[in-house]
Amino acid sequence: xxxxxxxxxxxxxxxxxxxxxxxxxxxxxxxxxxxxxxxxxxxxxxxxxxxxxxxxxxxxxxxxxxxxxxxxxxxxxxxxxxxxxxxxxxxxxxxxxxxxxxxxxxxxxxxxxxxxxxxxxxxxxxxxxxxxxxxxxxxxxxxxxxxxxxxxxxxxxxxxxxxxxxxxxxxxxxxxxxxxxxxxxxxxxxxxxxxxxxxxxxxxxxxxxxxxxxxxxxxxxxxxxxxxxxxxxxxxxxxxxxxxxxxxxxxxxxxxxxxxxxxxxxxxxxxxxxxxxxxxxxxxxxxxxxxxxxxxxxxxxxxxxxxxxxxxxxxxxxxxxxxxxxxxxxxxxxxxxxxxxxxxxxxxxxxxxxxxxxxxxxxxxxxxxxxxxxxxxxxxxxxxxxxxxxxxxxxxxxxxxxxxxxxxxxxxxxxxxxxxxxxxxxxxxxxxxxxxxxxxxxxxxxxxxxxxxxxxxxxxxx
Length: 462
Prior knowledge:
By secondary structure, the chain is mainly alpha-helical. 78% of the residues lie in helices and 0% in strands. The chain contains 17 helices and no strands. It has helices at 3-21, 34-55, 61-67, 72-100, 102-119, 125-142, 145-156, 164-193, 200-219, 233-246, 248-275, 284-306, 313-327, 330-337, 350-380, 386-406, 413-456. The protein is globular, with a radius of gyration of 23 Å. It is found in: Cell membrane. One of its GO terms (cellular component) is plasma membrane. Its main location: membrane. Belongs to the major facilitator superfamily. Phosphate:H(+) symporter (TC 2.A.1.9) family.
């Protein structure tokens, strides 16, 4: 493997190690309690096991389907079924978490995803389709029920609101960074070293999910959004829609999330052909691990940012979206500025090397995005409909990804990257609007508080 890959990986690993092991200054430290640290560590353990179950599957889904003899078209339909299921059934199941309980929804995630893993043993298309539908439902629960449980339980136990950012950033650092790297290497060990076949990572994923479910059942307590018997599912949907329509901050947050995640999922499909347009021999597994390390770097940096009162999340995320937009412009710029190589095979090209650095920058932005968007959701989304609203946010995202998947061969790769770059720039504009509204709301609240104080004690009025 070329030295370039090791240099990029080593440089980022050194920075991550410096940030995480070098110690934080007293200004970066947030004093917490022992009870909170135990609670945080328990959640991070569960979240890491859940993400291990998810990361183990990702690199081998397409490969497994191809070994069963299915072509690109059939596999594309299976992927579309997964995202469509997440949009339709996942939204309903995820919304039940507010009424039936978030802990119960997290257990449902484990059971649903384990069943999805079991279906991978069958080469029958219909059974694999059922597995993709179950996987889509599980994905909606993964990205709504666990966060909803955490936020509700955090405040139910009386912990400081600022401490929530510590859990978010550490969970993303470990679950979406370290665990992703280890899962990729472990999956490669099962398939290539032990020759257990492409279905073995799915069996390992089911084991991790079962362990996580046991921890949830034995250590978590139940919490609800609105357990009112008078509210059926349709009423919950209407309430969530009203909340989004009546509060511009929630609507902006949903639009920002959909634009960024839509671009992120599109990038997942595009980075391989972008780095190997002439069938260059690139180490996919090592590049994936490099991307995950870049994401770890971003989440570690986000932890530093959120530990301070300034700059606020709403402010620095504007810069993050602009940087991410610029990083996905590199494939377009290299097409026009770098002479194309017509040599088939071989190592990564000069243009590919430049793009890889840009893609690592984008993945670092992804690492900052996850804990930051979680922090903003905890501030702006009402508790009684948290899971329902969060699943509403995923509807336009899933529609967008399904459209991209369906038309992935219809447009040049530069057009797809350009579209993602535009979406990310629009997200930065919407983020700027959100920051302005948030500052205005805080200023109005401060004025109202001063007026109440003046009315309560007119002798102290200026």
